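Example (one chain per record):
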Amino acid sequence: WDAITWQNIKNLHPPHYDSITSTCLAAKHGKFFSASRDRSIKEWDTQTLTNTMHTLHAHGDWVQALCMSASEDILFSGSKDGTIKVWDGELQCQDILQGHRGPVSAVAVVGNRLFSASHDRTVRVWRVEQYG
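Predicted structure:
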């Protein structure tokens, strides 16, 4: 969006097939990520606004939350399926964190800890220094 005219500057293509539920920025690498109810995660270049990578069926249900590690080298995704996945720079799943009994609705990193909120009415704290 143009901040002065409020006109749409560009629509990103290819679009997700369902609603976008989350975005997060990896400024150090010049990219950002989008997550969707279509169960996919897409990587976008911040300069060219082009889709540089995507993973279909990233989770068994909607991808609802994204955040980057403190180093911006690892992506975490939370899903309606109750899991959190750990993704490397090539969007390859490195680990699956399980423990919630309901959909994961939010994830955030502070230092070497990942905080996840769920519809099971809990916030879990995960040590994530092993992921970089």
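Caption: The longest strand covers residues 20-26.
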